[in-house]
Amino acid sequence: MNQAPFNWCVECDEVITNPVCSDCLAIQMRQMVAEQDQELAGMITGAEIEGATNCILCGQSMGLCAHCFSKDIYELLQERHPDMAQEFASRFDFDLRKAVADFA
Fold this sequence. Notes:
The protein is 48% helix and 4% strand. It is mostly helical. It has a two-stranded antiparallel sheet with strand order 1-2. The longest helix is centred in the last third of the chain and has 15 residues, at 66-80.
């Protein structure tokens, strides 16, 4: 069997091009959100979804792309703190602003 040089996201079925796991992203996201809302920041946790890709920061196995994880957190923020959601989209873009525009 021939191994492909890339791996796919389990949510969107696209190639994982930014291999940073949700745990590493969640740390950075919590820091940003905690500046305005500690309780909401505590709700941001990584999604432990194993895959064939390894995080470039911590080496953990991952199967969820940065875009999909960011989109999930964006939707949580949009529900609870819409002003913060816009700031979040600019800091954790991963094509998130394009996806947000597509939802509008």
